Amino acid sequence: MERGPQRAIRPTIARADAAQGGFFKTSRGSAQCHFGETDVDSLMTLTGKDFFGDDSRRRRRIRLAGGCVRRFARSLVHSACSAFLAANVLTNVLVVAAAAFVADGAFAALPIDEIKLPPGFSIAVLSDDVPSARAMVLSPKGVLYAGSLDGHVYALELKDGRVVAKHVIASGLDEPAGVAFRDGALYVSAISRILRFDDIDNHLDAPPKPVVVTDKLPSDRHHGWKFIAFGPDGKLYVPTGAPCNICNPDRKRYALIARMNPDGTDYEVFANGVRNTVGFDWDPRTKELWFTDNGRDMLGDDIPDDKLNRAPKAGMDFGFPYCHGGDVADPEYGAGHPCSGFTPPVVKLGAHVASLGMRFYTGTMFPADYKNNIFIAEHGSWNRSTKVGYRVVRIVVGANGEKARMEPFAQGWLRPHEQVWGRPADVLPMSDGSLLVSDDYAGAIYRITYAQP
Questions:
Q1: Structural domain of residue 62, as residue ranges?
Q2: pLDDT tens column, 202-244
Q3: Is 43 helix (H, G, I), strand (E, B) or coil?
Q4: Do 151 and 288 sit in the same domain of this protein?
Q5: What total number of domains does the chain contain?
Q6: If we measure between CA atoms, which residue out of 453, 417, 378, 442 comes closest to residue 128?
């Protein structure tokens, strides 16, 4: 199963947590300062990143910082720390807090140098100011649009691989994770509806009132947010996940991939038995649909696998809720429904990796053997005893779509000792051949490039 970024502000502390004390933690809207066994040397060398964390809600941490500084001062006095120690540690913390106000997000530079890539590849931060960034789409004019889970839709104007302007296209929407582009219009998916913003590239400063394409999608929040995309047939493809971890819902409403005309008419189910697909794309050679699917939870650490599926035609069934991962019969619903009766995955992606956005790579910047490969963003596990995922993988696909194999491509968002500072959510090849990766945990978008080593 895939879960979005928690509503609580998550700590991503580096040094202080090493001493098991924790320094600044928040939960459910309230702040707590924890010092416990935190060693003094760690506190003396704290950076802005250590104090405020790396996630996209750092501005709220700044507001809460003052309270923590005051409580820390009291704790030093109560523990009879020397005046010298108190002055030095408090000076360090206050400098960090002051710098935060002055430099805004600059103090919390993301540790991008921790990302490991194959030789010749490099990664840079395109923007660290796209809170809860999810799906991405590029307009023909070169404007990058990003959905989110925090109610906003963003537009980034780009020039020479850099962001020159940022705009908020919409606010207050219900988890508008998905974005698609067609005929000058931006399509946005909220949980129960699809909206369209016409001629959007020319109205970034004053976006038009959205047109409702459809408002008849299920309103269930469990697996309710969705990515969307236009297929080679001109149809808008819209998935709806199962409203549960495991259940047997209405096959005409849930656990499916549907498609419709751009105006919302002629809605039809394209594929069934799809528990929670997020990313999908079409093979540029065969025009066949490929998609990720997140496996169910609560069967153990190592089963079932997330899947990469292929649907060359409409009407295929991929097994949910009867079969998971291609070969795991569900203990409640599997009887009488053998896995052999459903379409198997092309690639098993691993259990609980939370495979989200995926794209075929069609650019020319990367080496020739990357052409028509698939990149998948693994958001990372949320309830496995040992964390997995938190990376981007490459799927090498044969000419006929078979003999596919998986290998790591970009990894390092999961640190040793299971510290997480980022969670890939989507991938997007750009017109210049570079690859973008969105990160809803850090509120960032990265750009991966290649140069002959």
A1: 16-108
A2: 999 999 999 999 999 999 999 999 999 999 999 999 999 999 9
A3: helix
A4: yes
A5: 2
A6: 442
